C-alpha cells in the first residue's frame, strides 16, 4: 500500500509517517518510480507507536516495542527492553501521583484550617465599586 492508504488505515497523516521514517521507526520500500510502499507489518508498527503515544510515551520510548515487532514477535511488549520501558514509565507515573497526593494533602490541611476559623465575607464583595474607589482615594 502507498503512504496515503497507510495513513488513512491507521488514522494519521502522511507527514507523521514520513517523520516516523526519518526517525528510523518505519521503513518504506521504494517502487521503481520512487513511491513509498508499505505492508501489513508497517500498519501494525504504526498502530503500536500511536497506541503508546496515546498513553504518554515519547517516540523514543516506542523504539523497543517497534524493534520487538520487527523481530517477528506477536506483540511489541514481548521483549525485555519493552518491559523495561513499561517499568520506567510506571515509576514516572508513580512519582507524579506521589507529588499530586502531597499537594492534595497540603490543600486539604489548608482548607481545614481555614474552615475551622469560620470565615465570613471579607467585606470586599459587600462594597459597591464607588465606595471602593472613594476609600482608595483617601
TrEMBL record:
Chain ranges of the HTH merR-type domain: 1-68
Pfam families in alphabetical order: MerR_1
Q: Which UniProt keywords apply?
A: DNA-binding, Transcription, Transcription regulation
Instruction: Cite the SMART domains for this sequence.
Output: HTH_MERR
Provide any one GO MF term from the record: DNA binding
Note down the stretches annotated as region Disordered: 119-138
Q: Which PROSITE patterns match?
A: HTH_MERR_2
Q: Does the keyword Zinc apply?
A: no
Q: Which CDD domains would you find in this protein's record?
A: HTH_MerR-like_sg3 (cd01282)
From the UniProt record, list the coiled-coil ranges: none
Q: What is this protein called?
A: DNA-binding transcriptional regulator, MerR family
The organism of origin for this protein: Saccharopolyspora shandongensis
Amino acid at each position: 500500500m502507498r503512504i496515503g492508504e497507510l495513513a488513512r488505515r491507521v488514522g494519521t497523516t502522511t507527514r507523521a509517517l514520513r517523520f516516523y521514517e526519518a526517525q528510523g521507526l518505519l521503513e518504506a520500500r521504494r517502487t521503481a518510480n520512487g513511491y513509498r510502499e508499505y505492508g501489513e507489518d508497517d500498519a501494525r508498527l504504526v498502530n503500536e507507536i500511536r497506541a503508546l503515544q496515546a498513553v504518554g510515551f515519547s517516540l523514543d520510548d516506542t523504539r523497543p516495542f517497534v524493534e520487538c515487532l520487527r523481530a517477528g514477535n506477536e506483540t511489541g511488549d514481548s521483549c525485555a527492553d519493552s518491559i523495561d520501558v513499561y517499568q520506567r514509565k510506571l515509576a514516572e507515573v508513580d512519582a507524579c501521583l506521589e507529588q499530586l497526593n502531597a499537594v492534595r494533602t497540603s490543600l486539604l490541611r489548608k482548607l481545614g484550617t481555614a474552615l475551622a476559623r469560620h470565615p465570613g465575607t471579607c467585606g470586599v464583595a459587600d462594597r459597591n465599586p464607588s465606595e471602593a474607589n472613594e476609600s482608595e482615594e483617601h
